[in-house]
Batch of 2 targets.
Target 1
Amino acid sequence: MTDADLAAHLAATAGRILLEVRASGMFEGKTLGRAGDETANQFLCHALYQQRPDDGLLSEERKDTDERLSKDRVWIVDPVDGTREYGEERSDWAVHVALCIEGRPEVGAVALPGLDLVLRSDAPGPLATAAPTPRMVVSRTRPAAEAVAVADAIGAQLVPMGSAGAKAMAVVRGEAEIYLHTGGQYEWDSAAPVAVALAHGLHASRIDGSPLVYNQADTYMPDLLICRPEYAERVLSEVEGLSA
C-alpha cells in the first residue's frame, strides 16, 4: 500500500469509527468528543505502528516524545479536528492524516465524515471557478481580528465554519477562496490540510509568506494562510500592513 493510499484509508476508516461512536448514543457533548478522540487515536496510532514501524509519529492525542525529531519521515495525525463540532453532531469536523518528509507535508488525506468525503494529496482535482466576491472562512465562535480586518480591506465575505480541516477543505472544494488564521494552532491542525491544499494548486504559508515547516520540537504554529494563488499577494500585503 502506498503512503497516499494508507493515509486515505486510515482517515476514512477513522471517520467511520467516529460516526459509529457518535451513533451509539452512549455519549454526548464533551464526553462524546473525548470518547471519539480516544477511540480514533488508538486506531490510527496502532495502524501506523503496524504499517510504518520505522517512521515517526505525532498525534494530538498521544504523548509526544523526542524520538520523532531524528526521523526524516513523520506521520502527523489529528483523530478529530473540531471536537466541539463532532460533539455537537455537526458536519464541519475532520480527520487528518499526513506524512511529512524532512519537514515538508508531502502526503495528506483529510476525511470529512459528516459529508462522506476524503480529499487526498495524490488525487487533486481542478479548482472550481472563484466567486466574484471572495469568501473567507473564519472560526464560527472566535473569528480572528486580523482575518476580519483583512476581509474588510479586500471586500471579502466572512463564512463562519468549524474545524481547521473543514475550513481548509472549503477552499479546496471551491466553497471559499481564503482561509486566514492567526489565533494559533498546532502541527496536527494543518499538516494534512496543507498537503492536500498544495497538491490542488493552492497557496499555503505562514502569514509572513514563509513556508510551513513540520516535525519541529515546538509543535505550536501561530498562523496560517491557505488561499487561491491569485489572492495570496494581496492578503499577505494586507496582513503585513496591520503590523506596520
Note: The chain has a mean pLDDT of 95.
Target 2
Amino acid sequence: MADVEDLYRAQYGMDGRPFGVLADAELSYCGPGVVRAHAALEYGLMTGAPFIVLTGDAGTGKTSLLLRIMADADPAQRVVLMSGLRQGTGSVLPWVLQALGEDIAADAAPTELFTRLQDALIAEYAAGRRMVLVVDEAQSLSTAALDELRILSNINTAADQLLQVVLSGHSLLRDRLRAPELLGLAQRVGVWAALPPLSRAALADYVAARLAAVGGAEDLFEPAALSLIHSVTSGLPRSVNQLCEMTMIFALSETAPTIGAALVQQVLEQDMFLAPLAAAPDRPSGPATRPGRLRLASGA
C-alpha cells in the first residue's frame, strides 16, 4: 500500500491511511459511546469483577476497544486475548493455555491442563499480577464452553480473584447469558458494557479524528457527504471506514479541496461498497464442521 500512501501524502498531506479496516488501538475513536464502554471495562478490571461483558453490533469497534484496554493495562494485570474459538471445539482449557504461551500436548488429560492453568494463575498472583482473559466473538462459544469459563473463574484465593474474564461479542451474547443453564455465569458478571453505532454528530467527529490522526484536514468530507455516509452505513465504524476509503480513492483523480456527497454517490452507484444489512437477531451457530483456529493470542 506504499503507492497509495504516497498518493494520500501528495494530495491530502497525510502520512498514513486514515480509514484502514483493521482494528487499531492507536486510531480508535473516543466518542461518548466508546468513553462510556471504556470506563465500564476499566471499572470492572479495577474492582476485580469475575466476568465483564462487552457487546455491540458487528463493526462497532469492539476489537479496537479491547486492544486499547490491553495497551493501557495496569502493570498489575496480565491481559491475554483469545479469539477464533467456535462451537464444537471441545474444552477451552487448551485454548486458554495457548493464549498464555504454553505448549500443549495433543494427548494431555483435562486434569493436567487444569492443574497447569491453576499453577500459571498462582505464579502470576505470586508475582503481583492478576490474569485477565479477553474472549473475542464470545457469542459463538457453546454453552458448555461458557460454563467451563465459569468454572475456571473459581480459581481464586480467599480474598482475591486470580482470573478475570472479559466476554466480547454481538448482542446475542446477552441473550445467551439469560439462558437458565448459564444463570451461574450471568450472576458473576460485574459489569455490562455496550458499544452503540455512531450518531450523525459522532460520525462527523469520528471521521475528523481519523483524518487528524494521520495529518489530514479534519473538514475534508463535506457535511452532505457525511450525512450520506451515515445513512448508508448505519453509523457502523467499520463500514464508515470502508466507504470513506473508497471515496478517497475515487477522489484521488479529483482536484477539489473537499469531498462532497456527489463523490460518495459515485462510489455507491458503481457498486464499490456493500452496505451493511439492518441488524437482525443473531442465531446460535450449529456445530463447527472443522476445528476453530486461534486468530490472535497475545500477552502483556
Note: Strands lie at 51-56, 77-83, 130-135, 163-169, 189-195, 296-299.
